[in-house]
Write a structure and sequence with these properties.
- The longest helix has 18 residues.
- This protein has one domain.
- The protein is of the alpha+beta class.
- It is globular.
Length: 168
C-alpha cells in the first residue's frame, strides 16, 4: 500500500467536478480549491488547509519565457523536491506571519503538492514522475539548488542519478 507518510506521496481518486483548466480568481478556481481542501482535510485529519497557489503546466512544446507567468509554466524535466526544510519554514512564515507560524510549526505542518491533469486530453508527452523517498540516498542523490531574490534565498533539491546504486 502506498501512502503519504510511508512513501512521501499518495495516489487518490478525484471525484470532484472540475476537469478543465480554469482562470485565476474565478468561481471555478474557488470551487476547485474548496474541493481540494475538503479532500485534504478528510484524508489527513487536518484542522486547517491553506492553498497558496496553483500552477498550470503547459502541454506540448515548451513555450518561450515571455509566454509563462507565475500560474502558467513549462513542465520541469528533472526530478526535484520543491522545498528543503528551511524553505518550507520560510513559506509557512510567509503565509501565516511569524507569530502564527511559530505556533503552527510546533505541531505537524506539511506542504503538500496536489497534481492532476486538467483539460480534455490526457498528458502523454510530459507525464508526472513520482519517487518513493525511501529509495533516495540523501547523501548522494540530493543536491541543493538555491533560488535567490532580493528578499530571500531558498533552496530546493535536485535529484540526480546515483552511479553507486545499481537499482537506480
Amino acid at each position: 500500500i502506498i501512502d503519504l507518510d510511508t512513501n512521501g506521496f499518495e495516489i487518490l481518486k478525484y471525484d470532484g467536478d472540475i476537469h478543465d483548466e480554469f482562470n485565476d480568481n474565478s468561481e471555478t478556481q474557488q470551487h476547485y480549491y474548496e474541493e481540494i481542501t475538503s479532500v485534504l482535510k478528510k484524508r489527513l485529519g487536518a484542522s486547517r488547509v491553506i492553498i497558496y497557489n496553483h500552477i498550470t503546466r503547459y502541454r506540448g512544446p515548451p513555450r518561450p519565457a515571455d509566454q509563462c507567468d507565475l500560474s502558467h509554466r513549462n513542465p520541469v524535466f528533472y526530478p526535484h523536491v520543491d522545498y528543503d526544510p528551511p524553505a518550507a519554514h520560510f513559506k509557512v512564515k510567509q503565509m501565516l506571519g511569524e507569530e502564527v507560524a511559530t505556533r503552527v510549526m510546533q505541531k505537524r505542518c506539511q506542504i503538500i503538492n496536489v497534481w492532476r491533469p486538467l483539460g480534455p486530453n490526457p498528458i502523454m508527452n510530459t507525464p508526472l514522475t513520482i519517487c518513493d523517498y525511501r529509495s533516495l540516498d540523501l547523501d548522494n542523490d540530493l543536491h541543493v539548488s538555491e533560488i535567490r531574490n532580493s528578499l530571500v534565498t531558498i533552496a530546493l533539491y535536485i535529484i540526480s542519478h546515483n552511479s553507486q546504486d545499481a537499482q537506480k
